[in-house]
Specification:
Oligomer: single chain
Structural class: mainly beta
Number of helices: 0
Helix content: under 10%
Radius of gyration: 14 Å
């Protein structure tokens, strides 16, 4: 069982920055791919960024150059640094972990943290 606890959300003006943190229970970076998803009101949850076992990163097009995903293995923590925030970045951000070592591996979600960007 993996537990994920997010923090760092809040209200910020457009152009501002926030850093989200996700602390995972146990040492999972050698097994689980970590990612950040978001869900805006009335919309489906979407992948924002993920970091693979080898440290490679993926971003959706709308956040490239503004968001950075990183991890601290010693702290079992994954971060999402968000700069130049826009109102359309508003939503609940969720940390996600998926076991990619085995086929159909288990996955886990954090409780979510609200990010609100005012114009």
């Amino acid at each position: 069982q993996v537990q994920l606890v997010e923090s760092g959300g809040g209200l910020v003006q457009a152009g501002g920055s926030l850093r989200l943190s996700c602390v995972a229970s146990g040492s999972i970076f050698s097994i689980y791919q970590l990612g950040w998803y978001r869900q805006a009101p009335g919309k489906q949850r979407e992948l924002v960024a993920r970091i693979s076992l080898d440290g490679s990163r993926y971003y959706i097009e709308t956040v490239k150059g503004r968001f950075t995903i990183s991890r601290d293995v010693a702290k079992n923590t994954v971060y999402l640094q968000m700069n130049s925030l826009k109102p359309e970045d508003t939503g609940v951000y969720y940390c996600h972990a998926r076991n990619v070592i085995v086929t159909n591996g288990d996955d886990y979600w954090g409780q979510g943290t609200q990010v609100t960007v005012s114009s």
